[in-house]
């Protein structure tokens, strides 16, 4: 028994006779009759009784009609599901993101994608850039949203807001410190106890070294929120990228941009080169690209 035979049988039931069914199916009547005989032989039952003015279903034929309709409906729905899956209408997108992007960037992408593809689900992992790079490399997540600098050679990527200036590094501080200018120079930070993100230690040290300054690093941390919390105690000044600072800075603390191109960063969406991506992940990446191009 195959799907074609079921379709043939149901066409006969719907039309009430072989002649009309053959015309509807665009085949000759003898081959149609032959297929029904083969179906009955395989099932070991008589499905219909041929009469001069049409056909009459046997009890077995009535059962087979109901089951045949269910089978064809299941086949059609399965084809649609697979088609939707291949076009990215179903599936799961797994995303790793730094905390600031998880608050500021990712929600708008998920909202818009959900409106287009309501049957797609998401899994989101948060962490610092190093953790997210590891998750992407191990295939735990399809896409990572991280901050530069890092080695991009293993990844395909989209630079967020590529047509806008890079994000500066900022200092966040209490009233214990005052600066004369709106933007702070590295020389202004000489001898001030600094609380920095370990992730940016190398570029921070290189920037100070270019000005022949040895910075006073009080503490190194791995979470922007903790770094700002320590600065809030008044024991030092936090140095962090501006986007997370805008999200996590307490209202009673001050923030100034650091005037140094060497300390600028960008948000980047990444995925591994030369790996299989499902249609749903490709569609999500297309949505991100469309935002970057506007």
TrEMBL record:
InterPro entries: HTH-type_LysR_regulators, LysR_HTH_N, LysR_subst-bd, WH-like_DNA-bd_sf, WH_DNA-bd_sf. GO terms for cellular component: cytosol. The keyword Amino-acid biosynthesis does not apply. The keyword Nucleotidyltransferase does not apply. PROSITE patterns: HTH_LYSR. One of its GO terms (molecular function) is DNA-binding transcription factor activity. Keywords: DNA-binding, Transcription, Transcription regulation. Residues 1-58 form the HTH lysR-type domain. It comes from the Bacteria. Belongs to the LysR transcriptional regulatory family. This is Transcriptional regulator, LysR family. It comes from Thermodesulfobium narugense DSM 14796.
